[in-house]
Amino acid sequence: MRVFGSVAYKHVPDQLRRKLDDKSTMMILIGYHSTGGYKLYDPINKIIVISRDVVIDELKEWDWNTNEKKNSVSVMIDEIEERQETQPVIEARRSTRARQLPARLQECELNPDSEVT
To answer: What's 21's DSSP letter?
Structure first.
């Protein structure tokens, strides 16, 4: 028996998600179904779902104070922008390797464009 009201993560099938979508949806366990699945409540969309592919975390509870979906992507972008501002600008090093003309151009005379016109 699982603790009712605990957080459950319902698996989202590959066919219903894109490359960067979450692989699971956070829901609340509200009971068992006669088919052997779990009854889950999605407080964000306010629907009840029955699923067998569920991972239950009995130690966590749903935070009822925030009913909106947490957007962690914008927080990560803000942190990245802050890190970029604090890092010193490092200038690119120029190569010190001696440049040589290819063998086919050794006998030719090459002039820059400014000398031709």
So the answer is: S
